[in-house]
Structures are given as structure tokens and as C-alpha cells.
Design a protein that fits this description.
single chain; 153 residues; alpha+beta; four-stranded antiparallel β-sheet; 4 helices; elongated
């Protein structure tokens, strides 16, 4: 008798009671996936900025290492760094390297173990606030890279 009752069309078993559970699970998980996706995209932009700052410091040091007269040329190093960082989002309209968001300094220093002259270029860049994530990413970072190279004589 019990088996006949379960097979009848009037019985609503456990399969019918859990019918909407997938929608509830997706609605609970979707904000977390969105939050994770935004965090990954945000970190991607910060990594791109960091790589651009490293390249700018390398290019500026390459320029200042071409001669002793250019070893402390912060203006020339600034021009090379600005060209390298032109693709960053908050660099449009920036034409100098002595304030926020970009600072470039080039100095001439004595070489290691008295072996001639070296140049030291420091590039400091403050990122733009993209999507602040409380407790995880505060929205702005300051990246600073220093490159030291031997000056060609």
C-alpha cells in the first residue's frame, strides 16, 4: 500500500521540495564571486602599474648611464620615465616629475670599489584609487624602484 501511495501523482516527495535550492545557492554565492572577480581585476591593474614603474626606472637609468654629463640629469630621466608611464590611467596631463603622482631623481654616485662613476635613478609612483576593497586593498599604493648602473666613459 505504501509503495502505491508513493507512485501516485498526488505525492510530493523530497525531490519536489528541494526544487528551488539551486537558485538560493547561486544567489548566496554570486556576490562572493563578483567580489573575487573585482579583486583580481584590481590586482591586475596594480601589477601592471608596478611593471610600468620598473620599466620606467630601467629606461631612465639606461639614459643616465650613457655619459658622465648625463649621470645626474633628472630632467632627461624624467622625460624617459614619462614616456614609459604614459599608458597609465592617471598620467594624462602630467608633465613634471617632482610631485604627485610621479617623482624621478637621478644622482651621480661613486662606483663600487672606486671603479669610476655610477648613476642611481629612483622612480616613485602613486597609483590611482580604482576599487577600494575594505580590509584587503585600500585603493592606493606607492611604488618606488631604484636602479643603479655604471656610467659609460
Amino acid at each position: 500500500m505504501l509503495t502505491a501511495f508513493r507512485r501516485s501523482s498526488r505525492y510530493r516527495g523530497p525531490a519536489n521540495r528541494t526544487r528551488g535550492s539551486a537558485v538560493v545557492e547561486i544567489s548566496l554565492i554570486a556576490p562572493w564571486f563578483l567580489f573575487l572577480f573585482i579583486g583580481v581585476v584590481d590586482m591586475g591593474f596594480y601589477c601592471y602599474d608596478l611593471i610600468a614603474v620598473e620599466n620606467a626606472a630601467r629606461v631612465a637609468a639606461e639614459y643616465t648611464s650613457t655619459g658622465t654629463d648625463k649621470a645626474a640629469d633628472s630632467t632627461g630621466a624624467c622625460t624617459r620615465a614619462l614616456a614609459e608611464l604614459a599608458s597609465l590611467s592617471n598620467m594624462s596631463g602630467v608633465s613634471s616629475c617632482n610631485g604627485s603622482p610621479l617623482t624621478v631623481t637621478a644622482t651621480s654616485v661613486s662606483g663600487l670599489a672606486g671603479s669610476g662613476t655610477d648613476t642611481k635613478v629612483n622612480v616613485t609612483y602613486q597609483t590611482q584609487q580604482l576599487i577600494p576593497i575594505p580590509g584587503l586593498l585600500q585603493g592606493q599604493f606607492t611604488f618606488s624602484r631604484t636602479v643603479r648602473a655604471r656610467v659609460k666613459t
